[in-house]
Amino acid sequence: MRKFLTVVAFMVITVALFSGYSNYGIPQIEPAPPPVEEKLDLGSMTMDQFVALGGRLFEGKGTCTLCHNSLGRAPMLDQIGANAQERLDDPRYEGAAKDVEGYLIESLVEPSAFVVAGFGKAGSNDTESPMPSTSGGGIALSEPELAAVIAFLQDNGGLEITVEIPTDIGSETEEPDAAGSGEPRPAMTSFQELSDEFACEACHTIGEEAGDLGPNLSTIGASRDRDYIRRALLAPNADLAEGFDPDMMPADLGEQLYAGELELMVDYLSKLK
């Protein structure tokens, strides 16, 4: 009996020490609050402020610089003033735009309406763009935000700014969804939902979806284990695939995923044999 009590006491002390260390000895990681959508006081905004807003969206929420950069994954946009009219006059152009402003809007919300030669999805003969629509998915720019990006592109490309600051939408943006209201967004329950949200297939070939900007993931589970796949999602520059440059994949993807969503992606990709 004495021996039994000694073992029980030892176990209780061990559990208490472990519990105390885990609660107080290990630094606690506080998750960052979800991003709050910027409130737009359109009624008092000057055009210079509207252009500056477009620049922030271009480099931030719109994730435009992820592809439109010197790595050559998408056309550079600093010469859009000189190039837009040429693309409208291109015999391959079959979109609905009638002027440069219309072309810029169309290129943001319907990227496949016209694909610049050499920048289409692999195998599409430049008829399908790897770029997702900025009006939906994980980007979801509102109408005023789209107009601000157009103003920025026109100003940056040396064009006359023809867009007007929206005045019939009120002083704020549209009613924010869960992702922009400060409330946690609902967790996604399938890899396809996550892929659509984060535009994975715009860069990676996964099954029948053929993106060629990033490594082919169709059989990644046959050559890489779960730890590698998880690390590639959390720290994409840690183990670069041969032939691909650093900083091609968002470094903060892990910060945007819930833990369960991360494991869902790892599970799915690890089974691609």
List the helices and strands and how they pair.
Blueprint: H1 2-25, H2 47-59, H3 80-89, H4 100-109, H5 143-156, H6 191-198, H7 220-223, H8 226-234, H9 253-256, H10 259-270
Task: Describe the structure concisely.
This protein is an all-alpha fold. The protein has 10 helices and no strands. The chain has 2 domains: 42-156, Cytochrome Bc1 Complex, Chain D, domain 2, CATH 1.10.760; 191-270, Orthogonal Bundle (Cytochrome Bc1 Complex, Chain D, domain 2).
The main β sheet shows up as: none
Helix and strand content put the structural class at mainly alpha
Distance between the termini: 56 Å
In angstroms, what is the radius of gyration? 24 Å
CATH domain topology of the largest domain: Cytochrome Bc1 Complex, Chain D, domain 2
Molecular structure report:
With 273 residues, the protein is mainly α. The protein has 2 domains: 42-156, Cytochrome Bc1 Complex, Chain D, domain 2; 191-270, Orthogonal Bundle (Cytochrome Bc1 Complex, Chain D, domain 2). It contains 10 helices and no strands. It has helices at residues 2-25, 47-59, 80-89, 100-109, 143-156, 191-198, 220-223, 226-234, 253-256, 259-270. Helix 2 (47-59) crosses helix 5, helix 4 crosses helix 5 (143-156) and helix 8 packs across helix 10 (259-270). The protein is elongated, with a radius of gyration of 24 Å. Residues 26-36 and 170-182 have low confidence and may be disordered.
